[in-house]
Amino acid sequence: DLNQSLKVNPRHALSLYNRGMAYRANGEPDRAVPDYDQAIKLNPSDAAAYYNRGLAYRDLRDYERAIQDFTQAIRLDPNFALAYNNRAFAWQVKGELDKALADYTAAIRLNPRSAPAYCNRGDTWQIKGDVDKALADYTEAIRLDPQDPLAHNNRALAWDSAAARLVPYDTIAGRYDGESANLALEGEYRVATAQG
Fold it and tell me: How confident is the model over 79-134, as pLDDT tens digits?
């Protein structure tokens, strides 16, 4: 029991870290932050503690502090792909889309099999209005994880956006006239609905 462990040794960094994780897993990020604070104070070189406190701040919608913690986690572990991915999300929420794209790209470089990173970067391209790049990223996310309903849904929305913008439409997936674009869109929605 973590509480008992901390009664025995209130300065046990791993117990503080683990209790913070338990609080966050139970939907209590506000209770997790003080435990992460203490764990970091006791072990300031623990990238995972900064990362998880960043997740707690993200849950609390304190994106500035989340970015600071993800940045520190990356300083301590430059290969921390999840820290890049989550910092990118925080940048995206703050409207810093170029910074988000740079971080999603770094996350993909570090973990090229991360379907969520491709899907998230596709969302950012979609927000920026670059439907072609969004479609490419959603397609790669689906290739990596064919069962991901979010990637299918978001690609369907991108197809819809592309079909409205230009018919016929050329993409990496081939040539789609208005009718086949609609069929592709309906197929994506069916897949997303069936899986979601």
Answer: 999 999 999 999 999 999 999 999 999 999 999 999 999 999 999 999 999 999 99
More confident residue, 20 or 71: 71
The residue whose two tokens read 């609609």 is: 182
Q: Please, how many CA atoms are within 13 Å of residue 97, restricted to the half-sphere of its CB?
A: 10
Q: In degrees rounded to 5, what are phi and psi of residue 185?
A: -60, -45
Residue 130 structure tokens: 């670059």
- Separation in Å, CA 111 to CA 52, 62, 116: 19, 26, 11
**Mean pLDDT estimate for the chain:** 82
Strands 169-171 and 174-176: antiparallel
Alpha-carbon distance values, 57 to 14, 49, 51, 61, 120 (Å): 20, 12, 10, 6, 19
